[in-house]
Design brief:
Elements (H helix, E strand, L loop, with lengths): L1 E14 L3 H10 L9 E3 L2 E5 L9 E11 L2 H5 L5 H6 L5 E3 L2 E4 L9 H11 L5 E10 L4 E9 L4 E6 L2 E6 L10 H10 L5 E4 L6 H9 L3 E6 L2 H13 L5 E6 L2 H4 L5 E6 L9 H7 E14 L7 H11 L2 E14 L2 E11 L1
Parallel strand pairs: 6-7, 11-12, 11-14, 12-13, 14-15
Antiparallel strand pairs: 1-3, 1-4, 2-3, 5-6, 7-8, 9-10, 15-17, 16-17
Helix pairs in contact: 5-6, 9-10
Bound molecules: S-adenosylmethionine.
The site of S-adenosylmethionine (SAM) has 23 residues, from helix 6, strand 12 and helix 8.
Length: about 350
């Protein structure tokens, strides 16, 4: 929802024929204020956030456009105490917003959902998280709050289109940086195994930009179905081969240059399988949940699995991915494996 106000702000003054070029430059530098450009004789007055070197600046009254926040839209509809409880942050997956509603706002949840449709451009569906992700397939229960009645969407990430059904497959937009970080390490020609591929976020991104072959395994048949749809929607440089099954049973041995194992609460039990899957000097991206600051402790688990698999492992780096739950973080260790 956009609000228009009239305010006195700084404007750069440029000859009319220069307007579009300067406007683009200011927008690219984040200096443009969203508002009307005024005309003054043969000049344009472009509203800006601050003085811009190289351009004469004047003050002028300009109509500005500003997007209202969720709380601003809800002001007057909810009491002040209720407004205090409204969470600012929510996840966006494709055109679906996924929100958390505290128990005190239970009776207001549909109103909050409808308000989100008003403030967030491009959102067509609002779903509510009911608890955390659960079970082997890492799914969470969702409740429809507003908009179209569906749980599937197409999510765009780093130029890839991912078909995701949030009720049937795990997906978190918060792993976008991590997926990109791993993709950048992949060389053309690599054989990659993603043991817990989910909707295929890692697999599709790697195959989009690298001439690599990714075996994308998941226990969840719906995940494999999502990947199949995504494969047909994207032009890939490499190849994604979705495999439905238990990674313990279907991961091939001695073939991979790289193994991705993003199952933070369960990956420890699969380390030996991952170490057996790589060729010598392959890399394993081992994701795990550990107490804050305690990722180092996991080296014992790594060493035990390495011994059972008959390989040597050298840690290349550890990164804290995000908070997993209070006091627990999601870490990734990049491990170099020597047979
Ligand atoms: C955290 S999610 C993976 C997310 C995915 N890597 C991404 O970037 O969106 C973990 C996935 O592992 C799958 N999974 C759980 N146990 C498995 C197993 N034994 N073999 C294969 N997949 C499994 C779940 O179905 C789930 O899709």
């Amino acid at each position: 929802m956009i609000q228009e106000t009239e305010e006195e702000v700084l404007c750069v003054r440029v000859p009319l024929r220069e307007t579009e070029r300067v406007r683009r430059k200011l927008a690219a530098e984040g200096l443009l204020l969203p508002g009307r450009i005024l005309r003054e004789g043969g000049h344009a007055l472009i509203p800006v956030r601050e003085r811009v070197e190289g351009y004469p600046t004047v003050k002028a009254r300009v109509k500005l456009r500003r997007r209202l926040t969720l709380k601003e839209v809800l002001r007057g509809r909810l009491t002040d105490e209720e407004l205090e409880q409204v969470k600012r942050s929510f996840d966006i997956v494709g055109d679906i917003a996924v929100v958390q509603i505290p128990p005190e706002l239970e009776h207001r949840r549909h109103e909050i959902g409808r308000a989100l449709l008003e403030v967030q451009p491009g959102i067509r569906v609002v779903l509510r998280k009911l608890g955390g992700v659960e079970g082997e397939l890492r799914l969470r229960k969702l409740e429809h709050l507003a908009g179209e009645r569906r749980t599937w969407t197409v999510h765009r990430e780093h130029g890839v289109e991912l078909w995701v059904d949030l009720a049937k497959v795990y997906f978190s937009p918060r792993l976008a940086y991590e997926r990109h970080r791993v993709m950048q390490q992949v060389a053309h020609g690599e054989e990659v195994v993603d043991m817990f591929a989910g909707a295929g976020g890692f697999a599709l991104l790697i195959a989009k930009y690298r001439r690599a072959r990714v075996l994308a395994i998941d226990l969840n048949e719906s995940a494999v179905e999502c990947m199949r749809r995504s494969i047909s929607m994207n032009r890939l440089l490499g190849e994604v081969v979705p495999v439905h099954g238990d990674a313990r049973e279907v991961t091939p041995e001695g073939v991979a240059d790289r193994v991705i194992m993003n199952l933070p609460m369960g990956s420890d039990a699969f380390l030996e399988t991952a170490f057996r899957a790589v060729r010598s000097r392959g890399v394993v991206h081992y994701y795990t949940a550990a107490p804050e600051g305690g990722a180092g402790e996991k080296m014992r688990v790594v060493e035990e699995a390495a011994e059972s698999a008959g390989v040597e492992v050298e840690p290349l780096g550890v990164r804290r991915v995000r908070t997993y739950s209070p006091g627990t973080a999601h870490y990734v260790m990049d491990l170099l494996v020597r047979a």
